[in-house]
């Protein structure tokens, strides 16, 4: 079936992708582009490299050396590193960043897609092997939302879609139809913690895809770390967009959510 390149960030989602791709007969060439990726990547990949995200030319040359033509970028790589300063970026990375007209998520990712394409590397749909991880509309936990929470979900869904349309973020935290926090460059977990603390308990987290979501990157995902951020800050409900959000570590997350009386549901615009 050929080789698939995986540019891996932090979290369990790259592992899920690697295992799903290997089950279909693909060899998976993993490049960890940030520290602290899942250990299973090194243990199970057909080939494994650690190359910092700032070394774009080396990443591309490694993929080509391995005979890779299709690449997936998946896992958490926080964009704030661009503002803190990349460590010793190579010339290719410097030129790419210098050519950006802004530093929005989509602008950065599309520039990387274009740079890979120059060397014949096609960035594939992140969800190609992961459709089973995207739940349909329904209540996934034992606890169901209250009517007040349903109103917050509807309000939060519309707000998150508006924020996504502006390429700001995909997550909002709301309480009593007031926005406690909007995800920006800090990422989902930090947004949840900030919003939950400001809401002082019983806040609702809503995560959606962007209205024009590019499935090659930044497909929304939730998992164990999402739930932990909620528990740390007093959020009591998580609503994800149905069939457009990757739900990772589902059994573990739902078991803990049920234990802590957290509601988790999958919704769409008709909710």
Automatic annotation (TrEMBL):
Designated name of the protein: Septum site-determining protein MinC
Pfam families: LpxI_C, LpxI_N
InterPro entries: LpxI, LpxI_C, LpxI_C_sf, LpxI_N
Domain LpxI N-terminal, first and last residues per copy: 3-131
Alphabetized PANTHER family for the sequence: BLL4848 PROTEIN (PTHR39962), LPXI FAMILY PROTEIN (PTHR39962:SF1)
LpxI C-terminal domain: residues covered: 137-265
The species this protein was found in: Anaeroglobus geminatus F0357
Lineage: Bacteria, Bacillati, Bacillota, Negativicutes, Veillonellales
Transmembrane segments: none
Signal peptide: none
Highest rank taxon of the organism: Bacteria
């Amino acid at each position: 079936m050929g080789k698939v390149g995986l540019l891996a960030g932090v979290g369990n989602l790259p592992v899920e992708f690697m295992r799903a791709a290997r089950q279909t007969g693909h060899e998976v060439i993993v490049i960890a582009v940030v520290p602290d990726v899942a250990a299973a990547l090194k243990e199970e990949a057909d080939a494994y490299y650690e190359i910092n995200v700032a070394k774009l030319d080396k990443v591309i040359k490694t993929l080509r050396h391995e005979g890779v033509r299709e690449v997936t970028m998946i896992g958490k790589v926080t964009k704030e590193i661009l503002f803190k300063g990349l460590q010793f970026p190579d010339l290719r990375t410097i030129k790419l960043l210098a050519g950006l007209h802004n530093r929005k998520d989509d602008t950065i990712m599309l520039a990387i897609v274009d740079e890979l394409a120059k060397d014949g590397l096609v960035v594939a749909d992140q969800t190609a092997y992961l459709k089973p991880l995207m739940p349909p509309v329904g209540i996934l936990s034992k606890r169901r939302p209250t009517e007040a929470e349903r109103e917050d979900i509807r309000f939060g869904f519309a707000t998150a879609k508006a924020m996504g349309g502006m390429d700001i973020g995909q997550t909002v935290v709301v309480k009593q139809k007031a926005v406690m926090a909007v995800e920006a460059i800090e990422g989902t977990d930090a947004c949840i913690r900030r919003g939950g603390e400001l809401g002082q308990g019983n806040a609702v987290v809503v995560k959606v895809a962007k209205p024009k979501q590019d499935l090659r990157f930044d497909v929304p995902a939730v998992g164990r770390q999402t739930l932990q951020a909620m528990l740390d800050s007093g959020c009591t409900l998580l609503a994800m967009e149905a069939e457009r959000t990757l739900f990772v570590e589902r059994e573990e997350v739902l078991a803990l959510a049920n234990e802590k009386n957290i509601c988790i549901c999958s919704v769409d615009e008709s909710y």
